[in-house]
Design brief:
By secondary structure, the chain is α+β, with helices and mostly antiparallel strands. It has two domains: 7-209, Endonuclease III, domain 1 (Orthogonal Bundle), CATH 1.10.340.30; 224-343, Alpha-Beta Complex (Nucleoside Triphosphate Pyrophosphohydrolase), CATH 3.90.79. It has 14 helices and eight strands. Strands 1, 2, 3, 4, 5, 6, 7 and 8 form an eight-stranded mixed beta sheet that branches. The longest helix has 15 residues, at 86-100. The protein starts with 6 loop residues before the first helix and ends in an 8-residue tail after the last helix. Bound molecules: iron/sulfur cluster. Residues 145, 148-149, 187-188, 193-195, 198, 200-201, 204, 206-207, 212 line the site of iron/sulfur cluster (SF4).
């Protein structure tokens, strides 16, 4: 059996999906807009969490018109916690572009690719699931399944698309694309795939040879570790936050003054320097308890926060704002900094 050739395998896969596909709300009435938002969100987080955020997003921005009419800050705010904020900015830009062009999203993969932030995978998902276009949506799950089925760790996306084009002659492209994604999540997982339950097991070369670990490792897939000293500086019960400038990590979002540090650098000394650069005189500093680590697209990030009181000795104001951690004033913070904000001690206004 070969997936691209044997119709029986394709029908078995589609039947498995109809029986075992999870009843997510977005599957009930897929629209180009809802599939688009869901696909971008599911690139950021697990599908169950994406479903919850997707539901919330549609309540806030039920259609493209509402989304385009919203301000970017509002859109970023709704995206908070999902990370990779350029994706939210692109969604907003694309919605504005669609409204400028009359309010209808393109219906083909190629047309969808003309919108900012919509790449090959998202365009193919929308075009196949909503419009039935026979195009393959290749994500990490689909890639893993196909590479195992053909025992080919280097199977390229172009070859996968060709193989799936054959499959789409036997079952709708949207069904097969979603079925493969779901199979990759439920059964053909990275570790310990559940081959006994898999509809493709009979012809799967990796399963038959017992070598399901043969996935190719991407060169350079390890993320660079970054340690960042963070100054949580308090004055009269308020903390200094700043908007990250363009070209820096988290551009356009809010965070505490911070700096990437080298292995040899003392984070407390860096925090003192950050305060001095802002014209602040600092009292004693304390490391903030807790672990603040997380991922970015290219980095594994480790925050080293220090808290302390500050006096505005040299100049008042500066580029940032002093905020009460319980009232962020609608600012959008990266997830790690949001956690930090919530962990800060709230002192009275004399401090
Ligand atoms: S048989 Fe096993 S390895 Fe092959 S596609 Fe199914 S779950 Fe993956």
């Amino acid at each position: 059996m070969k997936l691209g050739i044997d119709p029986a395998a394709i029908h078995a896969l589609a039947a498995w999906f109809r029986d075992h596909g999870r009843p997510y709300h977005f599957r009930r009435h897929p629209t180009p807009y809802s599939v688009w938002i869901l696909e971008v969100m599911s690139q950021q987080t697990q599908i169950a969490r994406a479903e919850e955020r997707h539901r919330r997003w549609l309540e806030r921005f039920p259609d493209i018109r509402t989304l385009a009419a919203a301000g970017e800050e509002e859109v970023l705010r709704e995206w908070e916690g999902l990370g990779y904020y350029s994706r939210a900015r692109n969604i907003h830009r694309a919605a504005c572009q669609v409204m400028d062009a009359g309010g209808e999203m393109p219906t083909t993969r190629d047309g969808l690719l003309s919108l900012p932030g919509i790449g090959a995978y998202t365009a193919a998902s929308i075009a196949s699931i909503v419009h039935g276009e026979p195009v393959a949506a290749v994500d990490a799950n689909v890639r893993r399944v196909l590479r195992r089925v053909f025992a080919a760790p280097d199977l390229a996306d172009g070859r996968i698309e060709t193989l799936l084009a054959g499959a789409f002659e036997h079952e709708p492209a949207g069904v097969i694309n979603e079925a493969l994604m779901e199979l990759g999540e439920q059964l053909c997982r990275k570790t310990r795939p559940r081959c006994l339950e898999c509809p493709l097991a009979e012809g799967c070369l990796a399963c038959r040879s017992g070598r399901t670990e043969l996935e190719r490792q991407k060169p350079g897939s390890g993320r660079t570790r970054l340690s960042i000293a963070v100054a949580c500086l308090r004055c009269r019960g308020r903390y200094l936050v700043e908007e990250a400038p363009q070209g820096e990590l988290w551009a356009g979002l809010w965070r505490f003054p911070c700096r990437i540090i080298g292995q040899e650098e003392d984070p407390e000394a860096v925090v003192r320097q950050l305060g001095a650069e802002r014209g602040l005189r600092l009292g004693s500093l304390q490391p903030l308890g807790g672990k603040y680590t997380g991922g970015h697209t290219r980095y594994s990030i480790h925050l080293l926060p220090y808290c302390g009181s500050a006096r505005r000795a040299l100049r008042a104001g500066g580029a940032g704002d002093w905020i009460d951690p319980r009232e962020d004033g609608g600012r959008t913070f990266p997830t790690l900094f949001r956690r930090l904000l919530e962990a800060l001690p709230v002192k009275d206004r004399k401090d």
